[in-house]
Amino acid sequence: MKTFDEGAARAFLAEPHVGVLAVAADGGPPAATPLWYVAEDDGTVWLVTSPTTRKARLLPGSGAATLVVHTVSPRTRFVSVDLELTDRSPATAQESRAIASRYLSGDALEGYLQFAQDHLGEEERFTFTPTRYRFADLTM
């Protein structure tokens, strides 16, 4: 097993992986949801979601979340990063396009954006500052 440093963890997060965001919930299991995210060069992480989702309702009260991202091919690696919520604001169309374009392109991107506009309603942007990284490369 190889560990890698915070710089390598940030570089890994900057790649377009699907992450799982876990948010604490009083009296029950955490909200743990797969999602798209953006990790900026300075470490800031942000995502866009509907304000009606369970995670969106829980985040303001908890003020924190954990993002877990992993791959198994071509190497088995993971990063888990604890996040402090630093901002919540209405998402712009440009932000929705920016996050979706990390994962989709061409007709798939345009189709998704049209679907989102027609069916998902207004979205919010949640912005986080990392407070702790855990990471490993399990490839020998």
TrEMBL record:
InterPro entries per record: Pyridox_Oxase_N (IPR011576), Split_barrel_FMN-bd (IPR012349)
Ranges of residues in domain Pyridoxamine 5'-phosphate oxidase N-terminal: 8-105
Coiled coil: none
Stated name of the protein: Pyridoxamine 5'-phosphate oxidase N-terminal domain-containing protein
